[in-house]
Amino acid sequence: MTAERKPRKDAVRNRAAVFAAADALFAQCRSPEEVTMADIATAAGVGKATLFRAFGDRTGLIRALYEARLAPVRAAIEEGPEPLGPATPPLERVPALLDAVLCFKLDNRHLALALEGSGADSPYRADHYDHWHALVRDLLRRLPGPPDSDFTAHALLAATRADLVAYLAGDKGVPREELRAQLAGFTAAVLDARTRRGTAVEG
Amino acid sequence: MTAERKPRKDAVRNRAAVFAAADALFAQCRSPEEVTMADIATAAGVGKATLFRAFGDRTGLIRALYEARLAPVRAAIEEGPEPLGPATPPLERVPALLDAVLCFKLDNRHLALALEGSGADSPYRADHYDHWHALVRDLLRRLPGPPDSDFTAHALLAATRADLVAYLAGDKGVPREELRAQLAGFTAAVLDARTRRGTAVEG
DNA sequence: TTGCGATACGGACCCACGGTCCGTATCTTC
DNA sequence: GAAGATACGGACCGTGGGTCCGTATCGCAA
Fold first, then answer.
1. What digits encode the pLDDT tens for the residues B51-110?
2. Of B125, B136, B131, B29, whose CA–CA distance to B71 is shortest?
3. The CATH number of the domain covering residues in A65-197
4. A127 at the B interface (CB within 8 A)?
5. CB distance A63 to A125 below 8 Å
6. For residue A27, what is the DSSP state?
7. Would the keyword DNA-binding be found if you checked this record's keyword annotation (chains A, B) (predicted)?
8. CB contact, 8 Å: B126 with chain A?
9. CATH classification of A9-56 is 1.10.10, yes or no?
10. What is the pLDDT, as a whole number, of residue A201?
11. Which of B122, B158, B192 sits opposite A158 (nearest CB)?
12. Contact flag, residue B120 CB and nucleic strand C, below 7 A
């Protein structure tokens, strides 16, 4: 077993400072690209190298922020009560999941934008996307319907893309509840049509 | 009237050279980010400034390439025969439009990726997106169904996002025809559910 | 053909930003 | 409190988008 010895006290303090500073800066600025690493280091009262030592690179920092915010949602899904928790039947859980994703991206627009639009790597290569997709796909498979659960899961999740959400909620000024209702309606329509169109269950 | 005098001969020749070089380079490389402006200039046998003079900036160049490829599709939609042309009834034209978009993005993955993922500006602020969205939304409105055509149009188009298409067709190796069939199935399901769920027509 | 203003060329140059290096400071442990 | 390990920080580097300006080319007219 790799017995990782505990890190130095100042290291954890600095890590936390960077974390907080980055969170605040990303929340303030319109577009995530106008926050530079140097900005974050300065705001945290820390040298640039400290920042990179703690998080590897820009993507690593953003991912860390994102994962921290996401943790409670994950917990609610994995072991929480209905309608998000695992005991919920698929027909209710899929809409609940999508609604949770939407709400999360509404509440954390800046981070979601920064992560999904981190240039080089498409959001589809991120591991957390696979997680969501597998979850939705498997729920769809447990429902009667045509055997295209994989694509349908992608398509449903695409409706919650960070930049789309930011565009509608931000630029277009669509209110939160209205967006939620529209996504719910769309999801319901898709599920409804699927259960109606075919009764085969995928292996 | 702004009487724009005609450009010099070498200017148009260079512009064409840059155009061709950029097209070739983007087509060859895996990710559009590994093609630099200097690369394009070199490949075109031209100085960097010439390139920027002709197209403004990176986004301008990519957009010009994209629009050029898109022109035939646009023409087919605006004045072509069925099922893409304006004479087609909405119920058939919406799937046809989405299929055309999908095929276009499959055939021009590199450009679509370069444009949608051009970092700063979300794809939703591009004017061509508004065009597609308005088209789909207006068709949906002409159909009986719930009054959320605007969002539904966004959601349907989101299923054809360039990075999703590239991910499925490229990384996952989903064959072209299978992808088309899946998108068609998804679209049909959405339309089917809409016409079934409500009979109101939006004003 | 030649002369001349207008236009375009090109590559050296600039700047911003992500990421690294290394001499120095701080922590931990004995 | 001394020694070794660990972390600090800001100067530094490479890269890539975008610009500047002295020079070459073009178009036109005489």
1. 999 999 999 999 999 999 999 999 999 999 999 999 999 999 999 999 999 999 999 999
2. B131
3. 1.10.357
4. no
5. no
6. H
7. yes
8. no
9. yes
10. 47
11. B158
12. no
